[in-house]
Amino acid sequence: MALKPTIYKLRINIADGDRDYYETISLTIAQHPSENLERMMARVLAFCINSEEYLTFTKGLSAVEEPDIWARTLDDRLSFWIDIGEPAVERIRKATRVSPRVRVYTFNSKSDTWWSQNQEKFKELAVSVYQFPWPEIQELATLVKRSMELSVTITGDTAYISAPAGDCQVSCLCLQSK
């Protein structure tokens, strides 16, 4: 019998002073059975940092041809591709052919090794790459409840997250900007 995803309901107040973006969003997010809380919260944080009209979660790990997060235009063209983790260079090369904006958010203890092995190959691609420090993502994951109210304030390269279970901050280090 296949394992079912765990469903989380989030209400997030986003305040991004750098982009003059202030919004309250309601999200229902499915945690894939093979996904840990840290990866799920890295997805949520990347969503908040890039929040805009038409941005949505995809089927994620269940659909290998899709990014974790995307935006499509009204005529169904892909306009934004966001991957979470340590994707293969070929996957991102393909993404740059189908989407004008591509971003990668890496977050775990393998991030530094993945980046040092792939940095030169990524330089030739029109992709922005960011890193969330692993200890900060682990701290963010401790705030998770099945139903959550979050306040996310983004200033510069840091997101300040407040929840009833506590507060934390997560830095967003730019490894490559295009």
Automatic annotation (TrEMBL):
UniProt xrefs under SUPFAM superfamilies? Restriction endonuclease-like
Superkingdom field: Bacteria
Span-the-membrane segments of this chain are none
Q: Which residues form the signal peptide?
A: none
A Pfam cross-reference name:
YaeQ
What name appears for this protein in its UniProt entry? YaeQ protein
What species is given as this protein's source? Desulfotalea psychrophila (strain LSv54 / DSM 12343)
